[in-house]
Amino acid sequence: MTSGFHIVVCGSLVPDPLQTLEPVQGPGGPGLKNEMMLPSVLDPWAAHALYEAAHLAKQTPDSRVWLVSLGPKARLQQLMMSIAQKAAFQLVAVDGSASGFTDCYDVAAVLAEAIEGIEGLDRSRLLLFGGRSSASRDAGVTMQMVGERLGISEQFLAVDKLEARSDGSLRVLERVEGGRYLASVCDGPPLVCAWSTGELPEPPNNPQIGMQNMRAIMPALQKARTVQVGAAGTDYRSVEVPRQRRDTRVVKMRRSTKSPARSSSGSGAEHGESPLPSTHTRRRHVTQSGPGSLDRRSPGLGGGERWEL
Amino acid sequence: MSTGKAAVEKGPTLSTLPGDDVRQIMWRFAERYDLQMLVQSARAVARGPVARLVADGARNTHEWTPEKAALLNAFDEAGITAVFLEPEHGGFIEGPKNLALALAALELAWVDGGAATGAMAGHLGLAPIHEKGTPEQSELYMKRSAPVQPGEKREQWRGAFALTEPIPYVGVDTGVLNGKVTVKEWKGGEEPILHVEKRGRFITNMAFANFVAAAVDTGDERIKSSCMVILEEGDPGTYDRGTPTKKLVHQLSSTNDPIFSLDVPASRIIGGYTIKDGVIVPNYSHGEIIDSVFKRTRVTVGLMTAAKLLSAVEPVIRYQRGRFRGGESDQPGTPRHDLGLQQKEDALHRLVDIWATGEAGASLGFWAARVFDELDPMDHRRPEIFAKYDIPEGRRALRAMAEWTERAVEYVRLAAKPAADRDQARFQELEGNELVQYLVTDALANVLCPAVKLWNTGHGANMMREAVSLMGGYGITEDCPGFLPQKWMDAQLEATYEGPEAVQRRQLSVTMTNAIFLAQFEEWIREMRRVAGMRPGSGACTLASAMELWLWTLRHLLEAKDAAGNPLYKGHRQGVTFPLADALCWLLASRSQITDMIELEERGPQNPSLSEGLAGFLRFFTDLCHVQAASAAGEVSRVCSSLVFGYNAHPSWKTDAGNVYDARELVVLENVMPGLCSCAVDALDEDLGAPLKRGPCVRFDGYEPFNLRRGKLDGCLTGSRLAKDNAARMLTEVMIPESLDYPQ
Q1: Using CB atoms, which residue from B78, B607, B611 is nearest to A204?
Q2: Is A245 within a domain?
Q3: Contact A34 B613 (CB under 8 A)
Q4: Residues contacting B494, CB < 8 A, separation 6+
Q5: pLDDT in tens, A185-219
Q6: Would you call B473 exposed, middle or buried from its count of C-beta atoms within 10 A (0-12, 13-18, 19+)?
Q7: CATH code at B221?
Q8: Which residues of chain B make contact with A16, given a CB cutoff of 8 A?
Q9: Contact yes or no for B78 and A73 at CB 8 A
Q10: Best of B35, B40, B149 to mutate (most A CBs within 10 Å, chain A)
Q11: What would the pLDDT profile of B398-441 be if each residue is shown by its tens digit?
């Protein structure tokens, strides 16, 4: 690969999950009680996407990273005081609601338009990153719609790993059911990656990186376009916040010597997992060709069994 | 949720706990992105690795463990180590850094004071070099202390500051040193080699410091005076880090009692030296250096205690509300379930007091930090400024300064007037005069620094005890949410190190009589009256009355004598000067709290994020200001009365009975002027016997101005308890997070 990636990360703010989140019906539609006053964090899934993007850009010379954020300008500015310290990126800000009650279709349209307007963006080198879903809504559809609007049909959801290979291809691990991964190889960009947790820890804050970022971030915030992405016309019959605790039960299982594959816990690593069951089918990519021709495999515990879908 | 029972007016209420948007405005860094990032960065370290260490029991050892040492890397990565450094030395903040250090200290101390101290101690080790070091010393040690960047191959150095010695040497009196520097070798034409003998006590960072800035006295007639010397780990001789101090607090900072016996080149004398008649003359004595260092670093210590109080609010509210949940009779939706202990007025009132103290302490600390940011550029150019205006150094400067003091006072008066009402040309002339500006700012800084250190830590420690008491039995356990008992004990150390309370009171007793400061103080009284006119519920009028009473008392005591004819306001009469210094701190803290509230009121509307909750914040903070002003008024009133009257001899029946009516006189006078008897406080009986009490009651002849002010002040407390009721009600309504954002 002779040139680096142009990585665009879509991500915005959500209320700090430690806060009391109480849905209320306001004059402008549904929202959270004291929503504007609650401290915000970068949407956790999108945050993983950003950290992965920054890491990939660091490993790949001549790469650039943009963060496209749709949210209230003043609150985005506050968020940047933390996020801008964690990774080097250029901000593309759009001033609008970041509420969990906005319509995903509208949001996708705004994000796609913002991405199309990025100066110097080479769409042939584009990796479009985002979260697999938003912590404030959990619909899990926005990234697909942004990708479609930008004409990117190679889409990977719930990604935990993206590896840029020396031949220019990209290998992607997607979470699938049963705690397993689907491994895919893509010839190269453009593609959409909707990230799960990835593999990287949250980078420590580094004010020196932040100071460098802020030189471009403040102008970006000042010229942020204002958009309307509310939930007008939408009627919410009931709203619930996610349960705060999972009813997790830890069960210790004795490993069977006769059937090692069945004893694996499938907790998220590619190695040591059982192969995908033969009944597993994929709805996406199967018939695609060109840069998206896929070499999928899921190496089992017993020795890297290949699966052609 | 139901509301409290207090019969107070309804209106905007406190929706959430104040967040960054609010604090950035109040503490004046809304335009400083570098500082906002530093806050986020320090917070992540505090509520991450620091909190985990405390929760895991790392405070239970005196030793410097690998787990504690890992914090140093966290400080480095987060930019906390580099805060003190100039950009050319690896830092990222341009210009003065007092506010930056104050913010970082507050964030770290929000969770643990020892972590904050550990982070700040590295800066303290560098501070003598920063303030008075030669350019070569600055270049060398600042760059060595910068965190290692990717691609760099060098060892990062860390410093310590060694002043305190084992008893009976350096403690309260920093002028007495046992550590000595002598000339070991001095060959003609070569740099002298010095020998340093120094034993330290309570030296922070000593478990890992690579270099130490040590204060030593001269032990050789070939060295003119005391000085500070840089000692390095590899110097010939003994660099014994000593044993860990068995302190009960701040266990996340390394504190040892080291022993040094080292040979160092004379170029290690901080600030350099000259040779005159065969004698090495250090350019700065150790006293000059530590004065310039401590007057900055003490401010951050004060903020550490304020952070503890503010951090206590959320855990206490959560504890109060959840106190009865889970019991058999508990029913969701009932006041008992929703409010818990917050149904009780006392629990709320005490929390209001804690919060108000925390706000006032933080406001005072950040005010001081900003003043030092203004002072620093001038202070570093002080020799040039003094030379420009022919001001000599040393004692002769005092005489030369008298004329400039008058001009500085004139500037203060002009600055307080509206532009239309003053001689604008004269004002601009004085404003453009560096010496005048230096004197005005220095006079203020010299009061604020000891005030922050004294009041924030001393009174703060008392209020932390209140916070602990509000947590019931939890308050004395290791797993108390918010680490409140640990913070209570830590506060006591903060009141002690970098100059215990007596040192701060002594400094205040000198600096608070400075004419330039008193001119500013008088203008603040007028300012508070104006504020009260526009914001009647803020307690500004109460405060102004208390300030008037304090000022009258100070001026009275400066002239007054005690019953034995001895002057009252003298250095050794600490029974007079110290309480008055304490009282001043209450006033300064309250004023700074009110000005911060005004800043929020004026600039808050510019931030759209605050539009939803600003009215509630303002109402709550206004009430807190009123509560704190009333507390300050009470303290001032008590102190001033005791000082004004306490040194007078009580009238006695033997010497003063002649001034007392007897019963027969009163009968006659009553016939002449009916009702007069009721005015007679004392009267002898028909046999000229005295009533059974100590003596005739005290007469107030000559004290009418005091009584007038005191009586007025009592009346000025009107409404302050209503403000407390109102603030208490809002505490029952404020929304708090589901859980604390750091481990317990």
Answers
A1: B78
A2: no
A3: yes
A4: B113, B301, B302, B304, B305, B457, B460, B461
A5: 999 999 999 999 999 998 988 888 999 999 999 99
A6: exposed
A7: 2.40.110.10
A8: 737, 741
A9: no
A10: B40
A11: 888 889 999 999 999 999 999 999 999 999 999 999 999 999 99
